[in-house]
Write a structure and sequence with these properties.
271 residues, alpha/beta, Rossmann fold, Helicase, Ruva Protein, domain 3, 7-stranded mixed sheet, two-stranded antiparallel ribbon, 11 helices, 9 strands, elongated
Length: 271
Protein backbone atom coordinates (compact mmCIF):
# COMPACT_ATOMS: atom_id res chain seq x y z
CA UNK A 1 0.00 0.00 0.00
CA UNK A 2 1.32 3.45 -0.93
CA UNK A 3 0.50 5.55 2.12
CA UNK A 4 2.75 8.32 3.38
CA UNK A 5 3.24 8.31 7.16
CA UNK A 6 1.54 11.23 8.86
CA UNK A 7 3.78 13.24 11.19
CA UNK A 8 0.78 14.65 13.07
CA UNK A 9 -0.03 11.12 14.28
CA UNK A 10 3.56 10.06 14.85
CA UNK A 11 3.31 7.22 12.34
CA UNK A 12 6.27 4.88 11.84
CA UNK A 13 5.15 1.70 10.11
CA UNK A 14 6.84 -1.61 10.93
CA UNK A 15 8.58 -3.08 7.89
CA UNK A 16 10.70 -5.77 9.59
CA UNK A 17 8.46 -8.87 9.54
CA UNK A 18 10.40 -10.51 12.37
CA UNK A 19 9.31 -7.91 14.94
CA UNK A 20 5.57 -8.79 14.97
CA UNK A 21 6.52 -12.45 15.38
CA UNK A 22 8.77 -11.66 18.34
CA UNK A 23 5.94 -9.65 19.92
CA UNK A 24 3.44 -12.48 19.39
CA UNK A 25 5.82 -14.99 20.97
CA UNK A 26 6.12 -12.78 24.06
CA UNK A 27 2.38 -12.48 24.70
CA UNK A 28 1.08 -14.16 27.86
CA UNK A 29 -1.09 -17.23 27.43
CA UNK A 30 -4.44 -17.28 29.18
CA UNK A 31 -7.78 -19.01 28.95
CA UNK A 32 -9.77 -19.04 25.72
CA UNK A 33 -11.91 -16.00 26.56
CA UNK A 34 -9.42 -13.19 26.26
CA UNK A 35 -9.48 -10.34 23.73
CA UNK A 36 -6.68 -8.39 22.08
CA UNK A 37 -6.97 -4.63 21.67
CA UNK A 38 -4.57 -3.14 19.16
CA UNK A 39 -3.97 0.60 19.22
CA UNK A 40 -2.99 1.99 15.82
CA UNK A 41 -2.86 -1.01 13.48
CA UNK A 42 -1.47 1.20 10.69
CA UNK A 43 -1.00 -0.96 7.60
CA UNK A 44 -1.70 -4.15 9.57
CA UNK A 45 1.70 -5.84 10.04
CA UNK A 46 1.20 -6.56 13.74
CA UNK A 47 -2.56 -7.08 13.24
CA UNK A 48 -1.93 -9.95 10.83
CA UNK A 49 0.29 -11.70 13.36
CA UNK A 50 -2.25 -11.15 16.16
CA UNK A 51 -5.07 -12.64 14.11
CA UNK A 52 -3.18 -15.92 13.75
CA UNK A 53 -3.78 -16.47 17.48
CA UNK A 54 -7.52 -16.87 16.73
CA UNK A 55 -8.76 -14.54 19.43
CA UNK A 56 -10.92 -11.46 18.84
CA UNK A 57 -8.85 -8.42 17.85
CA UNK A 58 -10.41 -4.98 18.36
CA UNK A 59 -8.26 -2.42 16.51
CA UNK A 60 -8.45 1.36 16.93
CA UNK A 61 -7.14 3.43 14.01
CA UNK A 62 -7.24 7.23 13.85
CA UNK A 63 -6.08 7.66 10.23
CA UNK A 64 -9.15 7.58 7.97
CA UNK A 65 -6.97 6.97 4.89
CA UNK A 66 -6.11 3.51 6.24
CA UNK A 67 -9.71 2.36 6.73
CA UNK A 68 -10.27 0.88 3.29
CA UNK A 69 -6.84 -0.82 3.27
CA UNK A 70 -7.46 -2.48 6.65
CA UNK A 71 -11.00 -3.56 5.74
CA UNK A 72 -9.77 -5.05 2.47
CA UNK A 73 -6.72 -6.74 3.97
CA UNK A 74 -8.76 -8.42 6.72
CA UNK A 75 -12.06 -8.92 4.91
CA UNK A 76 -13.64 -12.22 5.79
CA UNK A 77 -11.77 -12.45 9.12
CA UNK A 78 -14.65 -12.76 11.57
CA UNK A 79 -12.61 -12.10 14.68
CA UNK A 80 -11.25 -8.73 13.41
CA UNK A 81 -13.16 -5.63 14.58
CA UNK A 82 -12.05 -2.19 13.35
CA UNK A 83 -12.99 1.05 15.12
CA UNK A 84 -11.98 4.15 13.18
CA UNK A 85 -11.42 6.73 15.90
CA UNK A 86 -8.96 8.14 18.42
CA UNK A 87 -8.40 5.53 21.14
CA UNK A 88 -7.97 8.28 23.75
CA UNK A 89 -11.45 9.64 23.06
CA UNK A 90 -13.32 6.33 23.18
CA UNK A 91 -15.21 4.66 26.01
CA UNK A 92 -13.43 1.33 25.53
CA UNK A 93 -15.69 -0.70 27.79
CA UNK A 94 -18.80 0.55 25.96
CA UNK A 95 -17.17 -0.34 22.64
CA UNK A 96 -16.49 -3.87 23.86
CA UNK A 97 -20.06 -4.30 25.12
CA UNK A 98 -21.45 -3.12 21.79
CA UNK A 99 -19.38 -5.85 20.10
CA UNK A 100 -20.80 -8.47 22.48
CA UNK A 101 -17.76 -8.79 24.76
CA UNK A 102 -18.38 -8.71 28.50
CA UNK A 103 -15.71 -8.82 31.20
CA UNK A 104 -13.21 -10.87 29.20
CA UNK A 105 -9.53 -10.31 30.08
CA UNK A 106 -7.93 -7.73 27.79
CA UNK A 107 -4.43 -7.94 26.37
CA UNK A 108 -3.44 -4.64 24.78
CA UNK A 109 -0.81 -4.67 22.03
CA UNK A 110 0.49 -1.60 20.24
CA UNK A 111 3.25 0.18 18.40
CA UNK A 112 2.64 3.52 20.10
CA UNK A 113 3.33 6.98 18.67
CA UNK A 114 6.05 8.50 20.83
CA UNK A 115 4.21 11.75 21.51
CA UNK A 116 1.17 10.19 23.24
CA UNK A 117 2.72 7.17 24.96
CA UNK A 118 2.04 8.32 28.54
CA UNK A 119 -1.65 9.30 28.07
CA UNK A 120 -2.34 5.96 26.38
CA UNK A 121 -0.65 3.98 29.15
CA UNK A 122 -2.66 5.90 31.77
CA UNK A 123 -5.92 5.20 29.95
CA UNK A 124 -5.08 1.49 29.60
CA UNK A 125 -4.26 1.16 33.30
CA UNK A 126 -7.77 2.42 34.13
CA UNK A 127 -9.50 -0.34 32.15
CA UNK A 128 -11.35 -2.72 34.47
CA UNK A 129 -10.42 -6.04 32.88
CA UNK A 130 -6.94 -5.32 31.55
CA UNK A 131 -4.58 -8.28 32.02
CA UNK A 132 -1.47 -7.09 30.17
CA UNK A 133 -0.05 -4.34 28.03
CA UNK A 134 2.65 -5.24 25.46
CA UNK A 135 3.78 -2.07 23.72
CA UNK A 136 6.52 -0.72 21.53
CA UNK A 137 7.66 2.69 22.76
CA UNK A 138 10.70 4.94 22.58
CA UNK A 139 13.60 3.09 24.21
CA UNK A 140 14.10 5.90 26.69
CA UNK A 141 10.47 5.59 27.87
CA UNK A 142 10.75 1.79 28.16
CA UNK A 143 13.78 2.23 30.42
CA UNK A 144 11.88 4.76 32.55
CA UNK A 145 8.93 2.40 32.97
CA UNK A 146 11.17 -0.46 34.11
CA UNK A 147 13.65 1.68 36.10
CA UNK A 148 14.77 0.87 39.63
CA UNK A 149 15.25 3.39 42.47
CA UNK A 150 18.44 5.47 42.57
CA UNK A 151 18.92 5.30 38.79
CA UNK A 152 18.72 8.22 36.38
CA UNK A 153 15.62 6.81 34.64
CA UNK A 154 13.58 6.34 37.83
CA UNK A 155 10.72 8.80 38.21
CA UNK A 156 6.98 9.27 38.68
CA UNK A 157 6.11 7.21 35.59
CA UNK A 158 8.23 4.31 36.93
CA UNK A 159 6.54 4.32 40.33
CA UNK A 160 2.96 4.65 39.09
CA UNK A 161 3.40 1.99 36.40
CA UNK A 162 5.08 -0.41 38.81
CA UNK A 163 2.26 0.08 41.32
CA UNK A 164 -0.22 -1.32 38.77
CA UNK A 165 1.94 -3.87 36.99
CA UNK A 166 5.05 -6.02 36.91
CA UNK A 167 7.15 -4.59 34.09
CA UNK A 168 9.54 -6.46 31.83
CA UNK A 169 11.81 -4.84 29.26
CA UNK A 170 11.70 -7.39 26.41
CA UNK A 171 13.86 -6.24 23.51
CA UNK A 172 15.14 -3.22 21.62
CA UNK A 173 14.02 -2.37 18.08
CA UNK A 174 16.39 -0.42 15.77
CA UNK A 175 15.23 2.56 13.67
CA UNK A 176 15.67 0.66 10.38
CA UNK A 177 12.82 -1.70 11.36
CA UNK A 178 10.39 1.13 10.53
CA UNK A 179 9.36 3.24 7.59
CA UNK A 180 10.06 6.08 7.96
CA UNK A 181 12.92 5.34 10.32
CA UNK A 182 12.67 7.29 13.61
CA UNK A 183 15.76 9.06 14.93
CA UNK A 184 15.93 6.93 18.09
CA UNK A 185 15.71 3.28 19.09
CA UNK A 186 12.42 1.76 20.22
CA UNK A 187 11.82 -1.09 22.66
CA UNK A 188 9.05 -3.54 23.50
CA UNK A 189 7.97 -3.74 27.12
CA UNK A 190 5.34 -5.85 28.78
CA UNK A 191 3.24 -4.76 31.74
CA UNK A 192 1.50 -7.66 33.50
CA UNK A 193 -1.23 -6.29 35.71
CA UNK A 194 -1.07 -7.13 39.43
CA UNK A 195 -4.06 -9.13 40.63
CA UNK A 196 -4.06 -7.38 44.00
CA UNK A 197 -3.00 -3.83 44.77
CA UNK A 198 -2.31 -2.23 48.10
CA UNK A 199 -4.71 0.72 47.88
CA UNK A 200 -8.45 1.01 47.48
CA UNK A 201 -9.13 1.90 43.81
CA UNK A 202 -11.00 5.00 44.99
CA UNK A 203 -7.79 6.54 46.38
CA UNK A 204 -5.48 5.48 43.54
CA UNK A 205 -5.93 8.78 41.62
CA UNK A 206 -4.89 10.58 44.80
CA UNK A 207 -1.83 8.34 45.06
CA UNK A 208 -0.89 9.16 41.46
CA UNK A 209 -1.06 12.88 42.23
CA UNK A 210 1.03 12.33 45.37
CA UNK A 211 3.74 10.60 43.31
CA UNK A 212 3.82 13.40 40.73
CA UNK A 213 4.28 15.86 43.60
CA UNK A 214 7.15 13.75 45.04
CA UNK A 215 9.02 14.02 41.73
CA UNK A 216 7.78 17.48 40.74
CA UNK A 217 11.24 19.04 40.83
CA UNK A 218 13.84 16.29 40.67
CA UNK A 219 16.62 18.45 42.08
CA UNK A 220 14.62 19.21 45.23
CA UNK A 221 14.53 16.98 48.29
CA UNK A 222 11.42 14.91 48.93
CA UNK A 223 10.61 17.09 51.96
CA UNK A 224 10.70 20.29 49.89
CA UNK A 225 8.59 18.83 47.08
CA UNK A 226 5.92 17.50 49.43
CA UNK A 227 5.50 20.25 51.98
CA UNK A 228 4.31 22.69 49.29
CA UNK A 229 1.21 20.53 48.76
CA UNK A 230 1.00 18.68 52.09
CA UNK A 231 1.82 21.04 55.01
CA UNK A 232 1.70 18.12 57.47
CA UNK A 233 4.27 16.14 55.51
CA UNK A 234 7.58 17.42 56.88
CA UNK A 235 7.47 15.95 60.40
CA UNK A 236 5.92 12.66 59.24
CA UNK A 237 8.44 12.33 56.42
CA UNK A 238 11.50 13.09 58.53
CA UNK A 239 10.38 10.57 61.18
CA UNK A 240 9.86 7.92 58.53
CA UNK A 241 13.18 8.54 56.76
CA UNK A 242 15.07 8.34 60.07
CA UNK A 243 13.15 5.20 60.98
CA UNK A 244 14.15 3.54 57.70
CA UNK A 245 17.77 4.63 57.97
CA UNK A 246 17.38 6.95 54.97
CA UNK A 247 18.99 10.35 54.56
CA UNK A 248 16.57 13.16 55.62
CA UNK A 249 17.83 15.06 52.53
CA UNK A 250 16.80 12.19 50.21
CA UNK A 251 15.19 12.93 46.86
CA UNK A 252 12.19 10.90 45.72
CA UNK A 253 14.34 8.74 43.44
CA UNK A 254 15.99 7.16 46.51
CA UNK A 255 12.73 5.58 47.69
CA UNK A 256 11.17 2.40 46.32
CA UNK A 257 7.48 1.79 45.65
CA UNK A 258 6.81 0.34 49.11
CA UNK A 259 8.42 3.34 50.81
CA UNK A 260 6.32 5.74 48.76
CA UNK A 261 3.10 3.81 49.35
CA UNK A 262 3.71 3.84 53.11
CA UNK A 263 4.45 7.58 53.05
CA UNK A 264 1.30 8.26 51.03
CA UNK A 265 -0.81 6.42 53.61
CA UNK A 266 0.89 8.15 56.55
CA UNK A 267 0.63 11.65 55.06
CA UNK A 268 -2.80 11.54 53.45
CA UNK A 269 -4.68 9.04 55.59
CA UNK A 270 -3.05 9.08 59.00
CA UNK A 271 -1.53 12.54 58.89
Amino acid sequence: MNHRAQKKWGQNFLKDATIPQKIIQSLPLGDDSYIYIEIGPGKGALTEALLTLNHPVVAYEIDGQLESHLKTRFSGVDHFHLIMDDFLKRDIESDLKSLGFFKQPLHIVANLPYYITTPIIRKCLDLTHIASLTIMVQDEVAKRLAAEPSTKDYGALSVISQYYADIHYLFQVPPHAFSPAPKVHSAVIQMSMKKTRRLDPLVEPQFNQFIYQCFKQKRKTLVNNLQAEYPQAKAILLDYLNDQGLNPQSRAEALNLNHLLTLFQKITMDG
